[in-house]
Design goal:
Length: about 325
């Protein structure tokens, strides 16, 4: 398989490819970009390219090494994430990783660690990793994956070569949904728009479920009245139950406010995510100031980052919704 078959991100792949062929590989990379746009897929593909026994195109995806990397049991390639039932990547995990990276490679090739999401390393884990990056073990490669660099120590970030991954164009996501998941063109278009450029998100969306949820969510945002903190608290409590659902709500809210901003400025609806809800977008856009919409976007992104860091869900949602009440 070649990197060219990966969807999107061809510039980033070309960069990695040239490092591969020119032997100018860095010791540490930071892959930065929204959830589900392919950062981990590319990190794993890169590990395969470095270890593939066949080296057909970039990697064959079939040899023993490629297969073991796919299955997550190659001795020289580790993916580090929080242990089951844990919210964070701990300092113990990083210390084990460092020991492991200092052992000689089983295959004579690079030892690779993919840390995903790197933002779930607590501060002592990040400090421990920083020490490792200051004196990287020979022939090691560490790839940090993050949606948001803000939760990483600046000193850690500065030790990594940063590659930014943008959301994928809507048509690429839609084409993928049609060709790989057999979606009808109209559904694919809807799901691609709602995914905001993320294949990982798009394949897990269910159109009917999403349509219903969105009805509830828009109801919440449009029913918030000036000074009515009581309703905002009740809404926060109702929403806070499930972490994944909160993240979906906030992701959607981001798309919603983004739509309001685009519509307020351009009066055009072609690029709206919630394209099928144009009348509601038009109405809400008329009710909010540009400044209010901008700060709503900032609050939404902050709230999403808070949930990612496992802050108390109800408190994060209250802060987010109280902001909306204040701006009424
Ligand atoms: Zn292979």
């Amino acid at each position: 398989m070649s990197f060219a078959e990966v969807i999107g991100h061809q510039k980033q792949l070309a960069n990695l490819h040239s490092a591969l062929t020119g032997e100018r590989l860095h010791h540490a990379y930071l892959f930065l970009g929204p959830e589900g746009v392919g950062k981990r897929t590319i990190a794993v593909a890169y590990a395969k390219a470095l270890h593939c026994l066949q080296q057909v195109n970039d990697f064959c995806d079939q040899c023993a090494n490629c297969a073991r990397i796919s299955d997550g049991n190659h001795p020289d390639v580790r993916v580090l994430e929080p242990l089951a039932e844990k919210k964070e990547i701990s300092i113990q995990q990083i210390r084990e990783l460092e020991r492991d990276l200092n052992f000689r490679s089983f295959t004579g090739k690079r030892k690779i660690a993919i840390i995903d999401p790197a933002t779930l390393m607590n501060s002592s884990a990040q400090n421990a990793l920083l020490k490792t990056l200051e004196e990287p073990p020979q022939e090691s490669l560490i790839i940090l994956i993050a949606a948001n660099a803000g939760a990483l120590l600046p000193t850690l970030r500065s030790r990594c070569l940063r590659l930014s991954f943008a959301p994928l164009p809507r048509r690429e996501v839609a084409a993928y949904l049609c060709s790989k998941h057999g979606k009808a063109a109209e559904d694919a278009e809807f799901l691609a728009a709602m995914s905001m450029g993320s294949i990982g998100v798009a394949v897990n969306l269910d159109k009917d479920d999403l349509t219903e949820k969105r009805r509830v969510w828009t109801g919440i945002l449009s029913s918030l009245k000036a000074g009515d903190y009581q309703s905002a608290m009740a809404a926060a409590e109702a929403l806070a139950d499930n972490r994944d659902e909160v993240l979906r709500f906030l992701k959607w809210a981001e798309s919603w406010y983004r739509d309001l901003l685009i519509y307020s400025i351009t009066n055009e609806s072609d690029d709206l995510v919630n394209l099928d809800m144009r009348p509601q977008v038009e109405q809400q856009a008329a009710e909010m100031s540009l400044e209010g919409i901008r700060s709503a976007i900032v609050r939404t992104v902050d709230a999403g980052a808070g949930i990612q860091r496992n802050l108390n869900r109800r408190m994060v949602l209250e802060k987010f919704l109280f902001g909306a009440v204040r701006e009424r």
